[in-house]
Amino acid sequence: MELTDQERGSRLSALNALIDLMRPSVQADGGDLVLVRCDVESGVVEVQLGGACSSCAISTDTLQGGVTRILTDRLPWVTEVIGGLDDSLDPEDSSLLGTGGYVPRYRQL
Hints:
This protein is an alpha+beta fold. It has one domain: Fe-S cluster assembly (FSCA) (GMP Synthetase, Chain A, domain 3). It is built from three helices and three strands; from the N terminus they run H-E-E-H-E-H. The chain has a three-stranded mixed beta sheet. The longest helix is centred in the first third of the chain and has 23 residues, at about 5-25. The radius of gyration is 16 Å and the shape is elongated. The N and C termini lie far apart (about 65 Å).
């Protein structure tokens, strides 16, 4: 079944809104989440993690357990999420951008 232009636009709009909803969480750790491409007909979405995510040990978990799960749960037409890392940053520079998933907090007494 071929989608109408309105259906295509609606799907793309919903996808962009969901990406925009997830981005602040990723950005809070110095990373970023970018929509690279989307085929609203086949349901294939490609995203890329950047910034501190490129040196983060749990970036694969973020893509699979977070981004992929959220997109496929909330957008039933999404059939596949392809994720990648923006490795254009030097790993040391990348690691300085964010704090990662776990940062111990110490209280002063």
